[in-house]
């Protein structure tokens, strides 16, 4: 790889190595081979086996986990959730991926959270109940009108079952959405913003805030 | 079978022949053999093949569908939903089975409805997303407190995602719950009643209201 200065970040999940190299993204399945970078790699990981694999090909790697300043009484909170939330002072973080995690932060303190199924999981569940319930999700269904056909009845229920519990806890707080379905879901809330790359964004903030590790 | 007078009702679904013989219930899988009754059988059916099977073994059968007085603009509403709703003047009917159907009736008119996944489907969906999300549903989780562990985060999300959309449409209307999880869910609502056998109850009311068919 090039010897020029690059900031290389890696978010190690349960499916991929997700690299961000000076803002450019690259994804590798955990089973595939990954590049041997010359530069230091700053990473966060929820997967020990994958971390070990990164270490085998790349010597100069820095785990950002010890630098994450996030206090919570929540037992078993994933590192990705912590990083996504760690710079929110007051608000709600919604990470809408395969699951939808909703975390509530008040005066810099994490108050807890809940976990809804992701949109893809919702879509898959209905045909498992009955083949008569197999429909595409219509994200444009009118949520102010009670549905008058099964297709709308399912789309309405999926969206309402995600939106209403979030509205219930958010009241007028600021909502930050991230994750694959974050942009879509953010549109159902007035007081919301969507941040595509909150994990990488916050990894950069952690690096900048800790001069010692750069 | 006995020649004494018995009122025999049959609710033919997609899994079973569900008989009610003078209040006593008997279930037969659609694939198993069913008794040859001497008495008339009043039935409703959502399954044509199973209806044909009932006709083969029992000559004197009466389809109650034509006697159901239920008007709706909803396209494709299942007969079981119609029967459950047909005597409600103003209120919400929640049938909590493999799916949870929610129907809204105002001044004797069906305004529409929506379809949530059933509790069993919800329970099955989380482990499909990740083995880390495999937990039993805790129906006693405190819904007034933001969860502080993953087990509670899932139970809270499942219950809230069912309860909140129903509360949103019900406001102060009377809620009638039925179905396998109806009793459990009814307890989360103040203005609710639970009717275990609303289908058979309403079949009897239809028979009584139509002397000609007894």
UniProtKB/TrEMBL annotation, chains A, B:
Pfam families assigned: Pan_kinase
Cofactor note (record): A monovalent cation. Ammonium or potassium.
Enzyme Commission code(s) on record: 2.7.1.33
Catalytic residues in the record: 80 (proton acceptor)
Pathway it works in: Cofactor biosynthesis; coenzyme A biosynthesis; CoA from (R)-pantothenate: step 1/5
One record GO biological process: coenzyme A biosynthetic process
Cofactor list: K(+); NH4(+)
Residue sites binding substrate per the record: 74, 78-81, 150
Residues that, per the record, bind K(+): 95
GO MF annotation terms: ATP binding; metal ion binding; pantothenate kinase activity
Annotated localization: Cytoplasm
Record flagged with keyword Zinc: no
InterPro entries per UniProt: ATPase_NBD, Type_III_PanK
Catalytic activity: (R)-pantothenate + ATP = (R)-4'-phosphopantothenate + ADP + H(+)
Recorded family membership: Belongs to the type III pantothenate kinase family.
Subunit record text: Homodimer.
Biological role: Catalyzes the phosphorylation of pantothenate (Pan), the first step in CoA biosynthesis.
Name of the molecule in the record: Type III pantothenate kinase
